[in-house]
Design brief:
The complex is a heterodimer.
Chain A lengths: L7 H13 L7 H13 L4 E4 L3 E6 L2 E7 L7 E7 L3 E5 L32
Antiparallel strand pairs in A: 1-2, 1-4, 2-3, 4-5
Helix pairs in contact in A: 1-2
Chain B lengths: L5 E8 L26 H14 L2 E8 L9 H17 L1 H6 L8 E4 L8 H6 L3 E5 L4 H7 L9 H10 L7 E7 L1 H4 L2 H14 L7 E5 L14 H15 L5 H4 L22 E5 L3 E3 L11 E4 L5 H16 L7 H4 L3 H4 L4 H7 L7 H10 L8 H12 L19 H7 L4 H4 L4 E5 L2 E4 L1 E2 L6 E6 L5 E6 L14 E14 L4 E13 H6 L7 E5 L1 H6 L10 E7 H13 L1 H6 L6 E7 L8
The chains are: A alpha+beta, B alpha/beta.
Chain lengths: 120, 583
């Protein structure tokens, strides 16, 4: 992504990647990865959720990177060769629920570790 | 809670060696100690210190195998002593995180327990042992590597725990082969409760799933799981094991466990002596659940890999639409990704049993199910979350959709099939700015070929004299300025352009039933008034529909409130104007 764009296609791709940094915490390596992915996959799509960017090809996830959404006005986004779509934040009417269990069952059939001596 | 710390559950495997040769063991030939330069204690110490440097605190450290009791007396003692000391040293940090301080905990087959009984007493080690129920199957499946029976020795070892106050429990995994002996399972539970030091209230069942069991064991159907669960209640409700059957026995299927996390990679880690980190015993040795190596990778990389891999594993199968309606997604979170991918399914393999348990334990169906589903989708799924966004009207007046439905004349102001913007070879069907669930942005350059297509009927909608009607185009820049008496901050208007029917009729359209108008030059003409670093906006309607919108606003206060921003079909865009070498 470092090289100077020579075509509008390259320039737009670069601008899309830079625009992503308004919404997600991204390193330079992440941006290179995204730029290269979009370059190599004309049908590829980056799907941003609250804490992951998924690299999609034909609706299948092929890769993902952990990245926190820093724009509180959105819940996610979609970035493709053709457009950027921001998904506005939904303000819930309820308090929401926890992200779930803190105890490990680690049941691998006969080999479990059902340790609940330190539960919250 | 101290938000500076991230709390994790750490399972440590100090040895892969095992002294037994259970016929269905999922580790198969891996139950021997692996060659590594690292000592068991050194790796755990190194990991704990490295985690702590990154503010990652194990609130629980459990030892697992292989079989931990195959360690030498000294190694076992030193490990337990270290963990005990760790809890004491970090007591404040752990309790500040909302967790209880426990004792060192081991998972064991109980076969060599007598060798370490002094350490177990000294540190009040919490013990979780494995048995097969019914016990007659224990001696059939859980044998030594020389195929010797193990039950008698294990029951003798349980007797050794009698005089010590530590927490001691056993668990049993139920497959179809065990399920066939329901009566015997009931009797054996009673036997263990009455004749050993085990309080069988603190016991738990697991439901087996087919994975590397050498085709010896087969999973129960979901209906059989429910029958099993109900039979246990039938036998033990109201008895001295009431507490167990309504608590720990089936707690694994409640919401407190790792299988019911949004993303278990945020909390659960298994560390091997060689420094490798996996999700848990299920994912151990599986590349899809390998998070890195504590000696080679940074903690941040390991944490990121953990979150990432579990996210990927949850998304290998599409979201199950049944989970939308169930009402318990807020508790279940669709189950363990490892099992789902083993079975190539997309919901928990104990779904029906969980639903029974939720009902029995008075977990209510989610009053905010739509919101829980949406929150789950935006965090954990790659499906388009917009389709799961709840429709909520927080106001006391009608929603815009309702107002449109009640006034057919509004239809085409909001219609999503009437305008198509074409940029180069890509078509963008346009939606009303205030009805669409997301904001779309495209990128235009001086080289872009831009056309707008409008359905031909639009020129006649809400219009008595179509010849006087026109395609109405509004261009707004990204500059924000304060308008009007109300001092509202709005995008700056750049131009309004009307193209009358007579002109549209003369343009040859390549799309049947649509007028076409080329915007390329129009956009170029105003490019100096567009913003380069913020998005611009272009709207389309007809003169008559625009008039009707403002008439409706004047006549209907609810409509005015709901459609206070420009309602017309639009597209936001960045304009990039730069000289390039190859353009």
């Amino acid at each position: 992504m470092n090289k100077e764009p020579e075509t509008y296609e390259e320039l737009i791709r670069k601008k899309r990647c830079v625009d992503l940094t308004q919404h997600y915490n991204l390193t330079k390596d992440d941006l290179d990865l995204i730029y290269n992915f979009l370059e190599k996959n004309p049908d590829g799509m980056i799907l941003g959720s609250t804490n992951v960017l998924s690299f999609m090809v034909k609706n299948q996830i092929v890769y993902s990177i952990v990245s926190r959404c820093i724009n509180s006005s959105i819940d996610g986004l979609t970035l493709s060769k053709n457009y950027l779509r921001l998904k506005p934040h939904y303000t819930p009417s309820s308090g929401g629920h926890s992200s779930g269990g803190s105890s490990s069952n680690n049941n691998n059939n006969n080999n479990n570790n059902n340790n609940n001596n330190n539960n919250r | 809670m101290n938000n500076n710390y991230k709390y994790i559950h750490l399972l440590y495997v100090p040895t892969m060696a095992c002294n037994m040769g259970c016929k269905y063991c999922y580790l198969e030939d891996n139950t021997k100690d692996e060659k590594t330069n690292y000592k068991a204690l050194d790796t755990l110490k190194f990991a704990i210190e490295k985690f702590k440097e990154s503010n990652v605190i194990p609130f629980n450290i459990s030892l697992h195998g292989g079989e931990v009791t195959t360690l030498s007396k000294k190694d076992f003692h030193d490990l337990i002593a270290y963990i005990s000391d760790y809890y004491q040293t970090n007591k404040e940090i752990i309790t500040n995180g909302g967790f209880k301080i426990g004792n060192p905990h081991i998972k064991t087959n109980l076969y060599n327990l007598e060798e370490h009984i002094d350490t177990i007493k000294e540190y009040n080690v919490s013990i979780s042992g494995s048995l097969d129920l019914p016990l007659l199957l224990h001696d059939e499946y859980r044998v030594t590597k020389n195929n010797q029976k193990t039950l008698t020795k294990i029951l003798d070892n349980i007797k050794l725990l009698e005089s010590i106050p530590n927490k001691k429990k056993v668990s049993a995994t139920i497959f179809k082969e065990h399920y066939k002996y329901l009566d015997q399972i009931v009797e054996d539970i009673k036997y263990l409760h009455k004749n050993t030091c085990l309080d069988m209230n603190d016991f738990n069942f697991m439901i087996g799933f087919d994975y590397n069991s050498n085709d010896i064991l087969h999973h129960m159907s979901e209906e059989e799981q429910v029958t099993f669960y109900k039979r246990m209640h039938q036998e033990f409700d109201g008895t001295d094991l009431d507490l167990g059957v309504n608590g720990p026995w089936f707690n694994e299927f409640g919401p407190e466990y790792c299988t019911n996390c949004d993303n278990c990679g945020e909390k659960f880690f298994l560390l091997e002596k060689n420094g490798d980190i996996y999700s848990c015993v299920r994912g151990q040795k599986h590349p899809d659940y390998y998070y890195g190596n504590i000696y080679k990778d940074t903690i941040q990389n390991i944490l990121d890999n953990a979150f990432n891999k579990i996210f990927l594993n949850h998304n290998k199968e599409p979201f199950n639409e049944e989970c939308l309606q169930c009402g318990y997604l807020y508790l279940c979170k669709t189950g363990c990704p490892f099992v789902k991918n083993t079975y190539k399914t997309n919901k928990s393999y104990t779904c029906k049993l969980q639903q029974e348990l939720y009902k029995d334990r008075n977990y209510l169906k989610d009053a905010y199910n739509e919101e829980s589903v949406y929150n789950y989708m935006i965090k954990m799924r790659t499906e388009n979350s917009e389709q799961y966004r709840p429709k909520v009207n927080n106001n006391d007046y009608p929603m815009l959709e309702e107002l449109i439905q009640n006034d057919p004349k509004l239809k085409y102001i909001y219609d999503d099939k009437s305008f198509i913007l074409k940029v180069d070879d890509v078509e963008y069907p346009l939606e009303s700015q205030i009805l669409k669930k997301g904001r779309d942005f495209i990128y235009l350059t001086p080289n872009s070929k831009i056309k707008i297509y409008m359905k031909k009927n639009m020129i006649e909608e809400e219009c008595d004299y179509p010849l006087n009607n026109a395609l109405y185009i509004m261009l707004l820049s990204g500059n924000m300025i304060t308008y009007g008496d109300e001092n509202r901050l709005k995008q700056q208007h750049v131009m309004t352009h009307q193209v009358y029917k007579g002109v549209l009729d003369q343009n040859t359209s390549d799309k049947e039933d649509y007028y076409v108008y080329d915007l390329t030059n129009l956009i170029k003409e105003y490019k100096n008034y567009l913003t380069m670093d913020t998005s611009n906006n272009i709207f389309f309607t007809t003169t008559s529909l625009r008039d009707y919108h403002y008439t409706k606003q004047k006549n209907n206060a609810y409509y005015h409130i709901q459609a206070i921003n420009l309602p017309f079909q639009n597209m936001e865009f960045y304009y990039i104007d730069k000289e390039l070498k190859n353009e």
